[in-house]
Design goal:
Phosphorylase Kinase, domain 1, 12 helices, 14 strands, alpha+beta
């Protein structure tokens, strides 16, 4: 059962071992004191980067250091779904993840709670090129080399989460963020879970694996499917189901596409290695999908799947060039899920 939420007389919210107030978040017993040396009043907010049903993301600047940040503002913490999303983000501040952070996961800097306004502010690393979804819409189909560089970073993030016993459960292009230098970072852990296997239903149906859509037990192999679907979307320039099966986006249609139709495949403009990588990720049976660390090996890209290995020497500059191709305005930088 969900642990209770309490408020102190000083205006702090205490939830699942975290004490959060306008000075920031304090994690007990992992760490004494606050996570960061600044307070919310030190963050100057500016333009809106994206909006969701119950949240908004704004660009901010730490006036003490000049660091540019993103600030995700959640509505009432009395909403249990928002509290679950908050707790998932807070997990990234735990000691074991802070000691060995991944460069492929958006960094959570601090979390602030204002009791008078009943607002939670999550201060995040700023990814100044917005989401992968935005770049696909603006730049179109990714060349194979670019798709390889983006995909390897998504899988390095997945491998890091897998090693720490965390499923993301909502891998999609809008949750893959980019920097202008071409770095790729996984974001939005509002649906993540620490169990290696799970049965609950959350996330975005178009990217869900067959076992999830059928309500069966699933594992991190479901994230592998979703990441494979993101790779296909980069290469198709649109969601594969839309391109191959039509515009019906109903839940029933998603089950039909994922479980009864042949999985969409890349055309001959992409190599056998690229098509083979996608087929492994999108195998109907979870047991036929390799774990993230087998497809993309941290510290040994040349020993990874050939789709990754053949482009191992290529850096983020290739992704940055693709981003620049679509740099014209196409709406907000981010699509916020909660």
């Amino acid at each position: 059962m969900e642990s209770s939420m309490e408020f102190t007389q000083q205006g702090s919210m205490v939830y699942k071992g975290y004490k959060i107030n306008q000075q920031g978040v304090q994690i007990s017993p992992d760490r004494d004191g606050q996570v960061s040396p600044f307070m919310l009043k030190d963050i100057k907010l500016s333009e809106v980067l994206g909006r969701g049903t119950s949240s908004v993301v704004k660009k901010g600047e730490n006036t003490l250091t000049g660091e540019k940040v993103a600030v995700k503002i959640l509505g009432t913490v009395y909403n249990p779904e928002l509290r679950k999303a908050l707790h998932s983000e807070l997990k990234l501040l735990t000691k074991k993840l802070q000691e060995t952070p991944s460069p492929h996961i958006v960094r959570v800097i601090d979390v602030f709670y204002l009791q008078d306004e009943d607002m939670m502010h999550i201060v995040l690393e700023l990814c100044d090129a917005g989401s992968l979804d935005r770049t696909i819409r603006s730049a179109g189909r990714a060349p194979e080399a670019v798709a390889s560089v983006v995909t390897r970073q998504v899988f390095l993030a997945l491998g890091f989460l897998f090693d720490h016993g965390i499923q993301h459960r909502d891998i999609k292009p809008s949750n893959v963020l980019l920097t202008r230098e071409g770095a790729v970072k996984l974001s939005d852990f509002g649906s993540s879970k620490e169990d290696i296997t799970a049965e609950t239903f959350c996330g975005t149906t178009r990217y869900m694996s067959p076992e999830r859509l059928n309500g069966r037990e699933y594992s991190t192999k479901a994230d592998v499917w979703s990441a494979g679907m993101v790779m296909l979307e980069m290469c198709f320039g649109d969601h594969p189901y839309h391109v191959c099966f039509g515009t019906d986006g109903s839940f029933v249609a998603m089950i039909e596409y994922a479980t009864k139709h042949d999985t969409p495949r890349l055309d001959d403009s992409y190599s056998d290695h690229a098509r083979g990588f996608a087929c492994l990720c999108l195998a109907k049976r979870p047991d036929d999908r390799p774990p993230p660390g087998m497809l993309v090996k941290p510290g040994n890209l040349r020993g990874s799947h050939p789709f990754v290995a053949q482009h191992a020497a290529l850096g983020n500059a290739a992704v940055a060039e693709w981003i620049q191709l679509g740099a014209r305005g196409v709406g907000p930088l981010l699509s916020v899920g909660t």
